[in-house]
Recover the amino acids of this structure.
């Protein structure tokens, strides 16, 4: 399969971001990203999808939407929508109907920042997802970089500190979001996990201090979704757009915190007697299944079954496990970075039935 790095969930001046689409493309061209997906609030800005180039580097920009009910206070239940054929913000007041409309329009959707706490020092309210009765969504945004920032800024002084040292923020997806994902997976359906930057590149001032909070370029080097395609990108917008959205829908992807080290090359597979499958796929226990994870270089590998760790390997590059029981198997990888143990890689599950 062909791996690409996608940074998704970002905002421009069409909603509450500070930059233009060309600024996002310019920032992405300086990073290892292959594609970005812009998701302004309740608007689809047309005319910006396509390849942007600089010398020998090119970046594919796709445009989706982050939909939420603007009449609701606080404005919870944000939904990331990709690949829909039409504007869907008019359905925001009913999350289930919105999801149904996304599917009818040929799109896929992810519950954005499922747990997004308030940050009182900056007058930021809690905008978590609340309606857990919904069905038929594609997945959830397991790791949202901006939500995580809100957990470490109890005062404006903390905010000023992290404005100058943003690399110290990220630890891992919020624990309650990880627990919720495992709970949803235990209900028997497939729930795809993606990582989003939620990039706004906000300009903030405190007295004489002025900083851009998480510039676009910084975001694009940090929490990314690595997508495994059935074939390489072709350079054709329509074909490549379909390839990426099909892979995301299938769960053929994993989350990488690439600021600590590039996660390119990670693989999690299952081998049976007659087939080999990748993240997002199902395989039968009949005749035995061997799970195998490979990471780019040695780190701490944790294999989980139904949300519970069943194997932990320190300072290893390969994890192998004979799965004799049905279950939802996934991998987390941790490494030390800037003095702390931090999450590096979060696979999507392999469903052993």
């Amino acid at each position: 399969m062909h791996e690409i790095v996608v940074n998704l969930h970002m905002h421009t001046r069409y909603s509450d971001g500070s930059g233009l689409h060309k600024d996002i493309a310019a920032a992405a061209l300086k990073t290892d990203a292959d594609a970005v997906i812009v998701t302004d609030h309740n608007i689809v800005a047309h005319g910006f999808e396509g390849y942007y180039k600089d010398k020998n580097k090119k970046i594919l920009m796709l445009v989706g939407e982050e939909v939420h009910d603007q009449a609701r206070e606080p404005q919870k239940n944000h939904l990331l929508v990709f690949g829909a054929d039409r504007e869907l913000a008019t359905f925001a007041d009913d999350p289930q109907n919105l999801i149904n409309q996304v599917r009818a329009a040929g799109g896929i959707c992810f519950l954005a920042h499922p747990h997004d706490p308030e940050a009182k020092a900056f007058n930021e309210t809690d905008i978590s997802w609340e309606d857990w009765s919904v069905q038929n969504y594609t997945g959830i945004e397991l790791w949202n970089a901006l939500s995580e920032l809100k957990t470490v800024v109890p005062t404006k002084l903390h905010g000023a500190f992290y404005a100058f040292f943003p690399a110290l923020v990220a630890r891992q997806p919020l624990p309650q979001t990880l627990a919720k994902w495992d709970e949803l997976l235990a209900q028997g359906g497939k729930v795809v996990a993606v990582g989003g930057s939620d990039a706004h590149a906000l300009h903030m001032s405190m007295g004489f201090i002025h900083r851009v909070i998480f510039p676009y370029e910084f975001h694009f080097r940090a929490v990314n979704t690595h997508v495994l395609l059935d074939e390489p990108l072709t350079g054709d917008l329509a074909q490549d757009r379909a390839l990426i959205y099909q892979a995301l829908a299938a769960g053929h992807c994993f989350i990488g915190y690439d600021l600590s080290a590039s996660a390119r090359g990670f693989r999690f597979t299952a081998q049976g007697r007659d087939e080999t499958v990748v993240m997002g796929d199902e395989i039968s226990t009949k005749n035995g299944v061997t799970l195998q994870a490979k990471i780019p270089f040695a780190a701490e590998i944790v294999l989980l079954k139904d949300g519970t760790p069943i194997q932990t390997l320190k300072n290893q590059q390969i994890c192998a496990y004979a799965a004799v029981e049905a279950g939802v198997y996934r991998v987390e990888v941790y490494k030390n970075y800037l003095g702390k143990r931090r999450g590096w890689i979060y696979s999507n599950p392999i469903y052993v039935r």
